[in-house]
């Protein structure tokens, strides 16, 4: 029981990060029907920018750890969001009327470009965050030890996802995004500036991915320029698991994938952990081809 | 006109006498470019240094020694080209190279041309198991590392051990080797599985490891994962001792884990050059510092130096440059020979005899300290 609880919390922390990244995939797909393959590298960029800002600005000493990290998070999210928007303008918008395959190739190219740019600026070696930016304490819940940082990761992920959900559901821009997701042509006829909607989607998704990158850097300490690939793949899987295009689906899919991985590693085999996760994905897709929360919900809202 | 003819004749005569004094050519096949270029450059520096030393003392068999370096780029295809070029340039022995698969690509070429090859950074077991007569190596073998790992764990009184690898052929082979020896010696291997390299969160694995209740963990993967394991293990409040293989020997390990979490981590490695306790090594490191400043960073480059010294000793001892005679001498008669990394002798297969692996421990300041 104790081990089960411990693995559950392990899985939720990893899953929270998958979920945050998955939101970027799902939002872009929802509006543009495009998989933004560069999204994983925007996540990496968030981790690197976080490290640079943390080291060069001395926020922690000036503002204290909690406020310092909060300001840092806002800056990283803003900057990565801007890069995302820039990416949309340069790599995707010129191809919007072209066959879908061109945009996919452009996305792959953007991914390779970003990855190499990060490598050229920061070098190919592992980079390490300053130690102990936030206090490292753990609480014990029913015999399972849970570091405070993990609670923060899960908490921050849930808050960010909740905020996004409310933004999409309750604001005028959110309504416009939903409208554009259902039918871009009709939305345009209703007077919605679809280009602006797409730009906002490309600001929000990468900003959340950047926040996930910052969390990974702060918590795990070690980052390198290729890490976006594994996280991107897992998050993309999570988005499909939950039903791509569906925002609550991305959250559920991410958390679920993290938990499946942790429990698979614990009770079946560690070496087969990823294979188990993908087997579950295939199983779910056979039963529900649109993913857990599927397209149905997206249509309804 | 006559004058010119006689001059030409004189020159020819002079050339003839030089011809009789032809140098002994020893080849170096090393990654002078590519991702391991720093290793290869050091190998060349060391061989040049040792050759000029040897020439000052009169050379080999009364002839001067010449080092011919060819770049293998750290790539098997380039290595076979480099081997062919060295063979056609008339080398009698070759030192090299770094990386088992790269060495393997060149083995057959040297063997066909009857050239002695002494590898310096190639630890895969199969290289000497093929029974090639002119192939030797100064680097230890992977199964030797497994043996030292089992020995170290048992000597420290660990009876219940977990073995963790990362599914690469090096890491898995080493893990299996250690598991076999530990079970043979009566210890329990309570846990044996692999992690996926390249991830950030290993807490699921650590939780499972902890549940198996080992007294020590032997991890055979590379330093980035080892650093994360140490860090996350400390965060879990689990203070089991960790032992790593030679792929964890990298200062970045301490950066990733944090000094506090890395303290007490043990790993196996051939000694880093500064820690070589032998007189030969000290003299050599002093002359290296004089010529190039600093110390060579890589033990594998120093092992190339040992390859050169062994080849020279073999030629001197066999009084011949024929590969067959030199290899036979090295395998059977070489004794009391001290190289840079300690006493050197070879067995029938061409593997180095004796222990090369040492145990290191990370101290409270994050420095790697050689254990007695």
Task: Record the SSE blueprint.
The complex is a heterodimer of chains A (301) and B (372).
Chain A: H1 2-32, H2 39-57, H3 59-63, H4 65-92, H5 100-122, E1 127-128, E2 138-141, E3 144-147, H6 148-170, H7 172-182, H8 184-189, H9 194-220, E4 222-223, H10 227-242, H11 247-267, H12 273-287, H13 294-300
Antiparallel strand pairs in A: 1-4, 2-3
Chain B: H1 2-20, E1 24-30, H2 37-56, E2 65-71, H3 76-88, E3 93-95, H4 100-112, E4 116-119, H5 126-129, E5 135-137, H6 142-155, E6 160-165, H7 169-184, E7 188-194, H8 203-212, E8 216-219, H9 223-235, E9 242-244, H10 252-257, H11 259-262, E10 266-269, H12 279-292, H13 299-318, H14 323-332, E11 337-339, E12 342-344, E13 358-362, E14 368-370
Helix pairs in contact in B: 2-12, 2-13, 3-4, 6-7, 13-14
Overview of the molecule:
Chain A is mostly helical and 301 residues long. Helices cover 77% and strands 4% of the residues of chain A. Chain A is built from 13 helices and 4 strands. Chain A has helices at 2-32, 39-57, 59-63, 65-92, 100-122, 148-170, 172-182, 184-189, 194-220, 227-242, 247-267, 273-287, 294-300, and strands spanning 127-128, 138-141, 144-147, 222-223. In chain A, the strands form 2 sheets. In chain A, strands 1-4 form a two-stranded antiparallel ribbon. In chain A, a hairpin with a 2-residue loop joins strand 2 (138-141) and strand 3 (144-147). In chain A, helix 7 (172-182) packs across helix 9 (194-220). The longest helix of chain A has 31 residues, at 2-32. Chain A is globular and about 60 Å long. In chain A, 50% of the residues are buried. Mean pLDDT of chain A is 88; it is low at 296-301. With 372 residues, chain B is an alpha/beta fold. Chain B starts with a helix and ends with a strand.
